[in-house]
Amino acid sequence: MQLSIAKRSSPGKGKDAKSASSAQRILFTVDVDDSSSVDDLKKAIAKKNKALYPERQRLTTGEAKSILEAGIALSKYNLKDGDTVYLKDLGPQIGWQTVFYIEYIGPIIFHYLVYNFPSIFYGRAFEHSEIQRRVYILVMGHFIKRELETAFVHRFSHGTMPLLNVFKNSFHYHILSGLNLAYWVYGPSSAQGTALAAKLGNPTIIAIFTGVFLFAELSNLSAHITLRNLRPPGTRVRRIPYGYGFDMVSCPNYLFETLAWVSVAAMTRNLAAVLFLVVSTAQMYIWAIKKHKQYRREFPDYPKSRKAMFPLIA
C-alpha cells in the first residue's frame, strides 16, 4: 500500500489563511488508496518529519474541520486523492498511564506527610481525633485504589496527552485534594480533645458515612471494570456499556466518585473538603456531558433514558 503526502508551502490567502494560521495548522494534500487509514496517514507524516510522531498529531479535514480519529479508514471521511488535510502539532506528549500515576501519587504523599509529621506543618505535635484517623484511612485508601486501577484495570482509548497538561491536572489532585485538604482536615482545630472533635466524633455518623464511602468506592471500581471489559487489550474498540450504574447514567464512575467525596465532606464539615467536592464534581460533570454526547453521536441505538451523570436529572 502506497500513501504519499505533499506539504503545501502556504495555507493560501484571505480568510482561510488567517484561520489556518491562528490554529497553527499545517496543510497537506494526500494521495490515498482504498485501504488507507488515519493511522497510515499519521505514520506517513511521521516519516516526513520524525518530530511529529503519530500521538503528537491532530488531523482534520473539510470546512467543519472534522477530526480524523485513529483506527478509522480514510474512506469513511470521503477523502480522495488531492484532498486537503490540516495537521495541528499538539506538542510533546506523555502517556495517560504515566499521567495517572503522577496525579494520584501527590495526594498520597501530602496526606502521609501532613498526618504523620504535624510538627512540621503546624509547629507542634498533637493527638489526632477519631474523625481525623478515619478520614486519613479512607482518603489514602481511595488514592491507593486509583493507583492500582491505573496499573491493573484501566485501558486507555487515547495513549497520550500534551505534556504541559500534566501540570494543570496535577494541581487539582496535588493541591486541592492533597495539600489543601490534608492541612485543614488534620490540623489541631479538630484534634483529640477539642470541641470540634467531640462534635464530629459521633460513632454512628462516622459509621454511616464510612459505609457510604465504601459503597461508592466499590461501585466506582465496578464501573471501571465494566468499561475495561468492553475494550479488548491493545484496541480502541468502543461499545455501549450496560449493567450496574450504566442503566441510569453514561458515567456512573463519576457519580460514585462524587458520592465518595460527599461522604468525606459530610464527615469533616470542612471547607477544604467542600471546595474539592465542588471543583471535582463540576469537572467530572463536564467530562460526563462530553462522553454522553459522544456515545449518542456514535451509537444510534444508545438508550435515550440515560442521563450523563446524575440519574433523572442531567
Brief digest:
This protein is 54% helix and 10% strand. It is built from ten helices and seven strands.
List the helices and strands and how they pair.
Elements: E1 4-7, H1 14-22, E2 25-31, H2 38-48, E3 57-61, E4 66-67, E5 83-89, E6 93-95, H3 96-116, H4 118-122, H5 130-152, E7 160-162, H6 165-185, H7 195-200, H8 203-230, H9 252-268, H10 271-298
Helix pairs in contact: 3-5, 3-6, 5-8, 6-10, 8-9, 9-10
Tags for this model:
single chain; 314 residues; alpha+beta; Ubiquitin-like (UB roll); 2 domains; two-stranded antiparallel sheet; 7 strands; 54% helix; NADP
Q: Quote the beta fraction.
A: 5-15%
Number of strands: 7
Helix content bin = 40-55%
Number of helices: 10
Strand order of the biggest β-sheet = 1-2-5-3-4
Q: What number is the mean pLDDT?
A: 88
Query: Radius of gyration from the CA trace?
Result: 24 Å
Description:
Residues 1-22 are annotated as: Disordered. It is found in: Endoplasmic reticulum membrane. Residues 1-87 form the Ubiquitin-like domain. Keywords: Lipid biosynthesis, Lipid metabolism, Membrane, NADP, Oxidoreductase, Transmembrane, Transmembrane helix. Helix 5 (130-152) runs parallel beside helix 8, helix 6 packs antiparallel against helix 10 (271-298) and helix 9 (252-268) runs antiparallel to helix 10 (271-298). The longest helix has 28 residues, at 203-230. Residues 9-24 have low confidence and may be disordered. The chain has a five-stranded antiparallel beta sheet with strand order 1-2-5-3-4. A hairpin with a 4-residue loop joins strand 3 (57-61) and strand 4. 54% of the residues lie in helices and 10% in strands. The protein folds into two domains: 4-91, Ubiquitin-like (UB roll); 94-298, no CATH class. With 314 residues, the protein is α+β, with helices and mostly antiparallel strands.
